[in-house]
Amino acid sequence: MRMRRALSVLAIPFVVAFANVFGALRAVVIGGFVVLPRIFWAVEVHGLEHDHRWRSSYLAMNHKRDLDSVMPMAAVVRHRGWRAITGDVRFGMRADGFAPGFLARVVPRPRWLAWLLHPFSVGWILRQAGTYPLEGPSTRPAEMWIRDARRVYGNVRAGEILTPDFLRALAAGGGRSPEAVAALRLSRVLGWRYQDVRRRYAGPEICLPLVRRTLERRLAATVRRELADMDAWLARGGSLYGAPEGRLSPDGRIGRVSAGSHRLLRDGPAATRVVPIAIVYDFMITGRPRVFVDVAPPLAGGGALARTELDARLRAAWLSAARFTCTQLASGFLVRAAASVAPTFTLDDLAASVRDEAVRLARAGRHVDARLLDPHTARGRCARYLRFAARRGLVRHTTCGVWAPVVGDLDLAPASGEVGYDRWPLAYAWNELQDMLAAGGLRVVATTASERVANA
User: Fold this and answer.
1) How does pLDDT run across 177-219, given as a tens digit for each residue?
2) Nearest-angstrom CA–CA distance, 217 and 7
3) Dist CA 105 CA 141 (whole Å)
């Protein structure tokens, strides 16, 4: 007994040293994930005073892009102190982030870079950063279903696992016949040739019925285990940063809270505090785009809220805290200009309208990019927006300094699991604007020069 006590005492310095090493390693990993996105994005964080650094907190972000989980990381962790860096705050992330090929899916262009990144897996690094994988049947690329099938059935032929429809999709993407693809082993289907098809999000319906049921049962067991791990962490007083929607917004609107998030809060400690975090991207500009992160006041009742009330209050908090940027307000101007009697406009018309709208919103108590409140900086942001719109064919030059909008169809049609901000930026920003304005019962009033004169 004395020997055991002596060994326990001697072990204390080693345990402390290990904890310090783990904390330092986690700090390095988190630092890497923080620094890399900021090379390409400018990040502004507001409202940290609403995070009271309570233990057992669920920091709940809306979900627009894969980078959402890392954009506010530095500010949140710094605000919570060294304890957060060494492990007090852990992160929830889509499970495909832990699977091989994640970097190539997140950075699909340029293609040569995606090809270089494709073999690498960052799963171990994410785990060292204290990140939990979050599974879901609608938030998985097709590649993960194929990898799961390979683990269960071995390296069998693709035709024994995948449906004819998905085999045809692979064949079209890889430039081969469906019969040739069906004869390939799964390891070959996981090669680079079929990357563009495999990285698309898909459900288990890409697999044959018997295979599908087996994989669905395995996934359900995995989800239960992951949620239990996170609930245990909250029960120990830890905090979790995650996305209650469970999937990226496909069209710019806030989505529903996922069943997994409801289960997490239902089975976790009743005292869990829910802190909403709104993230908005000012992405329709040339040069370095900007990200705005706004922390909203915590929801009273937190994890004890009923499902429908939690959904409604989270949505209202996200939309009320979201910051209006040039992307949303200038897109509103373009849509209205296209529907007006005199659709042509100048840069000065655009800048004046965006500034007027920004001032109106700020007076109504809404969060607005401060650069839009000053005539000079608002004009500069609008000039960058106009250059972006011209490159994407959303406006055309008519005469010297005069532009006409080319709006087209505003209905987004992203495939399952895909997002529309890249292919349909104007429609995505327009939907986002309508969603944000509806939270305060507001409407778009950005107008062309002729409409402003008529309204006056």
Assistant:
1) 999 999 999 999 999 999 889 988 888 999 999 999 999 999 9
2) 45
3) 9
Phi, psi of 424, deg, nearest 5: -130, 65
For residue 240, give the nearest of 66, 68, 59 by alpha carbon. Answer: 59
Secondary structure class of 211 (helix, strand, coil): helix
Question: What is the sign, positive or negative, of the torsion defined by CA atoms of 305, 306, 311, 316?
Answer: negative
CA 13 to chain centre: 41
Model confidence at 4, pLDDT cuts 50, 70, 90, reads very low
Mapped onto helix, strand or coil, the DSSP state of residue 90 is: strand
Does the N-terminal peptide bond of residue 244 adopt cis geometry, omega within 30 degrees of 0? no
The CA distance from 258 to 227, in Å, is: 13
For residue 261, how many other CB atoms are within 10 A of its CB? 25
Instruction: Tell me the residue length of the chain.
Output: 456
Closest by alpha carbon to 198, among 225, 224, 176, 166?
166
Give the SS3 label for residue 274: strand
| 291 closest CA partner among 327, 267, 318 | 327
First-to-last C-alpha distance (Å) of the chain:
89
